[in-house]
Amino acid sequence: MAQVTVQSGGYATIPGSGALNVTLQNQIASAILAAATAPGAHLFTATVPASSGPSVPAVPGQIGTVAEALITDAGGNSYAFNSNYSYILDNATGIDTISVAPGTGIISGTVGGVFNLVGGDTVALGGGNNLVQSSIAGPFPQPDYVAAGGGNDTITEGIGGTIAGGGGTNVLSGTSTAGSLLIISSGAGDTVNALSASGVTVQSSGTNTSIISDSVDAGSSLYVQDTGTNTTLFGGNLGPETISAQGTDLVAMAGKGNLLFLGGAGSSYLVGSAGAAENIVGGSGNILYTDNGAIATVTGGSGHFTGFGGPNGVINYSASTGSALLVALGGSETLSAAGSSVGTALFAADNLFSVGQPTNDLLVGGAANDTIVGGNGNTTMTGGAGDNIFAFFNTAFGATLGGGTNLITDFNALDTVLASGYGTAAAAAALAAATVSGGNTTITLADNTKITFAGVSSASALSGHFYTF
Fold this sequence. Notes:
There is one protein chain. Helix content is 6%, strand content 42%. The longest helix has 19 residues, at 19-37. The termini are far apart.
């Protein structure tokens, strides 16, 4: 229980907990002590409603007066406190509507209430279901600090400052144009609307939280630190975004601005945004990423990374631990593991994924042993160092995959070509019918799949390295 001393009536016991509640208690106690001991200081305590009815008593016009109000009614009333009141203690047994001036401290009980703020206010909600809303008053608004209890609260902050949602299922909204905002979500099923044009930081530690960000201001930044479970982020920012995925099963749709994504120990799914520059740093958890045409730089962690490309997209992957699968999905894409020292599997687009779109893919392996799979479009393959496998499929899952035009830029004696679905005799027939032009050798399979080996001037150099089955 939070026990707050008021001069007229001994003690008012207002239930509640939390650091902000304690901070306000200490502020009130200090103000009371100062008013009781400082020369020229005065303390005015009003019990609301007054004996004359549900009105707010006027504060005496003495210099140095500190005024507080204790609300004790059964609810259903509206009170407007002017700037003469520094502290409001809401101990009502029903829901009231309370409007305050800038710089007011409020402690409420477990019943809930409606609170209208205008900047520079500090509110500790003990519990119940509360509605808190702020709007700008004056040309120099100050940030608010609102900390909720265990109820289902709706808090809309239009000025800037801090919102701490507490328990329950809450709606926490930041629509500020005047200052940056910190939103702390720890409930179950919270909805966070991070819409501030002045920058928003969201700390999410609850379960099943939905975070929505849609700032149209390119200068507005979004930072999300997620340590919760099953968080969903709908990013729409034009400005930069940073997402720290330290929780479990985060699903994030990136905004239109540049992105820094920091993976953690849990699994996460990230959807990129076309044309954006996206920097992804993996952790020990698995990351599933669809770039949608973004330009992505991926530094893999010890977990597995799966990346799906998109039209005009680029995924540059590097890692010294973990593993990766990179898959093209149609359009012109670059999937590169050139900076990686661990084996990577890279797949060109085919008609399982591209849905008839023309494809022009560049697939690049790294320093380890990579597997690079051709599709039915135009594909350029570079294996890099290591013992690489270049694979081609005639059919898979009932779909025709062959018929593509492929260029292998750096085939060497350590590499192998595997072609599935053509029969064991197809290799010898293809090598026998190979053509050589400009120092390059081209073989054609039965489904018109063409493979050109740059710098290989004779089909005999492929013997023992080319297998069909």
